[in-house]
Amino acid sequence: MYKDLLWIFTQLPDDYIVLDTETTGLPGENGPPDIVTLGITVVRNREIAESVEFKTRPQKRISEEAQSIHGITNEQAAAFDSFDSQWQQIAEYLKHQLIVIHNASYDWPILLDHVARYGLAMPPIQGVFCSQKAAIPWAQALNLPCSHRGPSLDALTEALAVENLRAKEGGLHGSEIDSRQAARVIEVVRHRGNMGLVYVTR
User: Fold this and answer.
1) The whole model's pTM is what?
2) pLDDT score of 2 more than 70
3) Does the first or last residue of the chain, that is N or C, have fewer Cβ atoms within 10 Å of its Cβ?
């Protein structure tokens, strides 16, 4: 029965990209936050082929809470290149790809806001897949910690006994490392869905 709950992961293409962002804070009265870093992990033939991180200079100040999460200060971010000056490089990674995001309801609108704000053009893509929402039925069936958005990347990493890459960085979040972590988790989930292996580590 639980295998059926992973069906959507088994239908992912062999090639896709995983995208993640670190930002200046949470959405609020001043609209969406600004992107501070944007990470992309390229998956080819179900294997990680490449990871890259773009550091972008925000127009808004980074909140203290956000700094505590990703460790990037306003002084450091002031030296980064602007988002629009790096967009063509970013867009090349997105072009004609399925974009997988863990918590797409957060990252994707922020990216679209930046594209609109700078008057840029989004390249043609295959679509956006939220791995967090897709994992909700399976996570709930196994009583994993699960918010209204779905199980966190940390919860899936622990439950599936996937190596925690962030632990090597003192626990700090990073868009490149988190996109790689998500890609690893997704491929473990896909494998278990295909093999009917649904157990978790407790």
Assistant:
1) 0.93
2) no
3) N
